[in-house]
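dude i think i finally got it to work??
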Amino acid sequence: MTVTLVNISLVNISNVQAATTDDTSTSSTSTATIDNTIKVSLGNIRDIVIENNLDIKNYYDSNKIAVQEYYDARDTYKNDSEPVQSNYTKTTTDALGNTTTTNDTTAYTSAVKNYNTEKSTYETKMDAYKKAQTAYDKKVESVVHTAQQAYIDYLSNLSNTKLKEDTVKSNEKEEQVYKLQYENGFISKNKYTSLLQGNTTPVNTLEELKDTVELARIKLCNILGISPEEKVTFNTDITEDLKVISNINYNDDLAKMLENNIGIKDQNTAIDDLKDAEDTYTNDDIYNYSVEKANNELKLLMNTAESDFKGQYNTLMNSYNSIKSSYDSFNTEKNTYNIMQTQYDYGFVSQKDVDDAKLTLDTNESALQTKKNALYVNYLSYLQMKEGY
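look at this
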């Protein structure tokens, strides 16, 4: 399925500290541009977070420590062999040819103790390493998902502010018209007052929204691990994301999901552990039933995971189709508005007609933004499931 869309930026507020850009690059790198500007998009948030978020770095360091300790314990344990009693038995022959066998029980016992300690340390460090790796993976997914959601919230606040800003500008123009009508006697004072009161979006409300945008920007930067004082641009164009979504290969993603799923991984590990412990079972039937039970549980997990993933895929594609249709309608409305501006230049329509059309366009754009947010939430849920969570 191919998507062809007019390149639309849903938000463009010039006085917001963090700039926005219509750059549709979805490069998976967080490398800054030549002018040290960090470009953030939904596609590269994961890389930026992994590179900069301090919480993730701490988990990463803990994981690396656990890995190194595991390697050290493994090398020590693997380089030794389990003590054998015969190696601690000494046989001597006297002058008459008589042989005497002596067991060095103390040395043997000490060697067995050291070996068991090394084995226990190895097993403990291996378990700690697995837990540290799982903790790191879960932390990455948690922070990435939080950052992506904060990104969506930030763009939503930008769009809402843009709408209110246009509303305020439209109201100000209307008030100028009302003032002229009143001063020239076309409307009464009561009518003039009533019209002014009808403009319900005061400037202070707009300023509050701008403060909300700034707080959302700072929150997003903190989660990304970027200083709010850095030069950052946020991609606000959904076109490239729509193309990525439309080109999803479900079967490939399904295979990756089944490979990454945490529950499935844990069950596979449990099966491996069960097979490793086969020699400890004195009853073959019990072992065989245990293996069969574990494999059945694995199949159930895989079936449930696949069903849930398919459901999320369907939800995502329904959301995609909805916003694609809305984009087509919005593009038509935008073209109509552009024609009206030309008509105004030639005196065929009034300024109020243009302002009203612009306000309607902004309102529809806001509704489109809501659908965009829903699409991104569904897309993030899909990606999160694909990563195994």
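The longest strand covers residues 89-93.
im so relieved honestly
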